[in-house]
Amino acid sequence: MSEKLLIKGLNPTKGEVSISGAKNSVLKLMAASLLCRDKCIIYNVPQLSDVEIMLEVLSELGAKTVYNKEQKKVEIDSTNLTGCTASKEHVSKMRASFCVLGSLVGRLNEARVALPGGCKIGERRVNFHVRGLEALGCECEIVDGYVVAKTKNLKGNTICFDIPSVGATENVMMAAVLASGTTIIQNAAQEPEIVDLANFLKSMGAIIDGAGTSQIIVTGVDKKELRGCEYTTLPDRIEAGTYMSIIIASQGSGIIKNIFPNHLTLFTGKLLEMGASIKLVDPNTLEVKNDKKIKAMNFITQPYPGFPTDLQALAMALLCCADGISVVTESLYENRFMHIPELWKMGANIIVNKKHAIIKGVDYLVGTSVESTDLRAGAALVTAAVAARGETEIGALNHIDRGYEKFVEKLRGLNIDASRIDDSIQTENLRS
Question: Is this prediction's pTM over 0.90?
Answer without folding.
Answer: yes
